[in-house]
Amino acid sequence: SILAVVLCWGISLSALTQAGTYSGGDGTEANPYQISAVNDWMELIGTWADWNSHFILTADLDFGGAAITPVARDTDPSSSGFQGTAFTGVLDGGGHVLRNYVINQPASDYVGLFGQVGSGGQIMNLGAEPIQVTGRYYVGGLCGENFSTITSCYATGAVSGTSYVGGLCGENHYYSTITSCYAMGAVSGTDSVGGLCGENNYYSTISGSFWDIQTSGRTTSAGGTGKTTAQMQTLFTF
């Protein structure tokens, strides 16, 4: 299965470029690829040629504690800057949630459910509930680095790294937006660390977004508004 192949490090993820079927759809805006099972998500991880396509989740996914790698991951951590193919497609979570997975890449950069969301990419209506996300630079519960638009998403897992570390996003880059999002997981790092976002660059915007100052252990963030756990559970906050 694709799941077995992706989890076997003896085979490069970049080799998995064959067209897949997911659970339906053709990847267009009118007929997005349907992700309804864990194997569909693993196919997305491995099929970089699809990262400019449209996707929709049609069910919650539970990974049962499995270790996975980011969609649009950095392919050469030894080189500076992002090396690889960014996610420039559109993923509509449909209000669904990805749960119980681990991303453990302490020597890698651009680590999260998505490594890098590139220009033109969109992530929306998606919940991420990892057990743990661990990376080095540019690490977030949802994405390592955002160059585009993230809307109505949240992340609750623990996130750890060295620099540019955030509960939701490691770095929100120039001319990028994060809107109506929140993070609740514990966040740890050394430099540019925030409860919601580690770094929010010039001309980038974070609005209507929050993080839990108690569960995150962070009273500051590059963007967003810190709230207590009780406030995070109050509808009026949102």
Tell me what you see in this structure:
There is one protein chain. This protein has 4 helices and 22 strands. It is mainly beta and 238 residues long. It has a 15-stranded parallel beta sheet that branches. The longest helix has 9 residues, at 38-46.
Give the topology.
Blueprint: H1 2-7, E1 33-35, H2 38-46, E2 54-57, E3 61-67, E4 90-104, E5 114-117, E6 122-129, E7 132-134, E8 137-140, E9 143-146, E10 149-151, E11 154-155, E12 158-160, E13 163-166, E14 169-172, E15 177-179, E16 182-183, E17 187-188, E18 191-194, E19 197-200, E20 205-207, E21 210-212, H3 213-216, E22 225-227, H4 229-232
Parallel strand pairs: 1-2, 2-4, 3-4, 4-6, 4-7, 5-9, 6-10, 6-11, 7-12, 8-13, 9-14, 10-15, 11-16, 12-17, 13-18, 14-19, 15-20, 16-21, 21-22
Helix proportion range: under 10%
The end-to-end distance, rounded to whole angstroms, is 41 Å
Overall pLDDT confidence? 92
Main beta-sheet strand count, sense and barrel state: 15 strands, parallel
Principal-axis shape equals: globular
- Helix tally equals 4
Number of strands: 22
Q: Spell out the helices and strands N to C.
A: HEHEEEEEEEEEEEEEEEEEEEEHEH
Strand share of the residues?
Answer: 35-45%
- Which class best fits the helix and strand makeup? mainly beta
Low-confidence stretches: 1-19
Specify Rg, calculated over alpha carbons: 16 Å
